[in-house]
Amino acid sequence: MRITPASLIVLLSFIMGPMPVTGLHGEEVPSPQSPFSAPQELGDYVRRTVMRSSSLHSTLQAILSHTFMPVDQGGLGIVYDNGHTRTVKEVWADRRANCLSLTAFYVEACTSIGLKARYAEALNTNRWARRNGQVRLERHVVALVDGGANGDLVADFLPQARRRMGVYAVDIIPPKRFLALFYANRAVEVMENGDYAQVESLCSRAINSDPKLSSAWNTRGVLRLHQARLVEAEQDFKVAIGLEKRDFIALGNLENLYRLLGMEEESRKYRELSLKLRQRDPYFQAFLAEESLLAGQHEEALRQIKVAIKIQPKDPEFYLLRARIEMDKGDLEGATKSIRDAQKCASPEDQSRFENKAESLKRLQEGR
Fold first, then answer.
1. 220 and 287 share a domain?
2. Which of 29, 185, 216, 267 has its Cβ near the most Cβ atoms within 10 Å?
3. H or E element: which one contains 134?
4. Same domain, 271 and 342
5. Alpha-carbon distances of 338 from 286, 298, 346, rounded to whole Å
């Protein structure tokens, strides 16, 4: 893991210093059957896009800006869409992608012109969300490009509202793990549609690509649970926990399985383990705070977001959530202070946005 102060410049920032060299994507070309295999048109488009670029930074910036630039202005017009994990060819065809698909697309775009690009996980951008009645941990991936003596450049496709300032931590993801993440993502999405045969196939592909990816085993355990294959579900959850002892999603699933089987002592054991881990996760505490806010439980929401801030005091989104809670309970002065606190942690391009929010609240207070 590499931890460094980073200021995001549009979508690019430098990560200075030596980086691990494992998992260098440029060492292998995806097979035509790979979900990361790029259409010929992508390479042709990138070469036309960067032909006037005079430096690495301007080359990468040209690729990034043209990725999202409207079609009528000569760009690809790709739109961020977190609803489906697409292959690189699907991104090209649909002009839509989530962060994993965008990262794969960008890495292939860079590789097509001979740049060395890698996958990485941004460790301080986790987010918990409730989707279709299920609580999920949404992790975030980015792309790194070898910048030589200047360090690596990271391209971050997280929507603007969730970008982080301050400490930027990344972990290199080897190609086989990134491929496993793709299949594991797809498995979760397909499970919502009830196509269990396809979920089984996708989980197998994920595990075959990287047998040490705990989330793939956990997803297969959930599938086994839906199929009432309880012994196999237990085995899969235990494998997931053995690979990642801090995987409290698998811990929670095992807790629920033992409760379903009437094994109360075992259930309580795993509940206590997962509870300890959840209490140390600032993003889970922020998720709980948002849930409490939606339920109108302001004091509980404030308590939970304060825990999140204590663990991770440099995340502006936590202060914005605290401001929302205070606004909802009618504390405009407290909300204004929270926005000012968020502003202190915000990236330079977000400063004016926070300033506008604070000034709007100030005018609201004065008009009372």
1. no
2. 216
3. strand 134-146
4. no
5. 15, 15, 12
Gap between the Cα atoms of 143 and 117, Å rounded: 7
> What's the 3-state SS for 233-286?
HHHHHHHHHHHCCCCHHHHHHHHHHHHHCCCHHHHHHHHHHHHHHHHCCHHHHH
Q: Does one domain contain both 67 and 168?
A: yes
**Domain hosting residue 229, numbered range:** 185-279
Residue type at 273 in one-letter notation? L
The model scores a pTM over 0.70: yes
Question: What is the token pair recorded at 223?
Answer: 């599938």
Residues 267 and 319 in one domain: no
- Which one of 256, 279, 302 terminates a domain? 279
Task: Give the CATH number for residue 16.
Answer: 3.10.620
Sequence-ordered list of residues with C-beta below 8 angstroms from that of 319, at least 6 positions apart, any chain = 309, 338, 339, 341, 342, 345
Same domain assignment for residues 204 and 168: no
Would you give per-residue pLDDT tens digits along the chain (368 residues)?
A: 443 333 222 234 444 333 333 333 334 556 768 999 999 999 999 999 999 888 998 999 899 999 999 999 999 999 999 889 999 999 999 999 998 999 999 999 999 999 999 999 877 666 666 665 566 666 788 898 887 776 778 888 865 434 444 445 778 899 999 999 999 999 999 998 889 999 999 999 999 999 999 999 999 999 999 999 999 999 999 999 999 887 778 898 999 999 999 999 999 999 898 888 888 888 889 888 999 999 999 999 999 999 999 998 988 889 999 999 999 998 888 888 998 888 888 777 677 777 777 777 777 776 65
Judge if 162 and 240 occupy the same domain: no
Tokens in use for 58?
């301007």
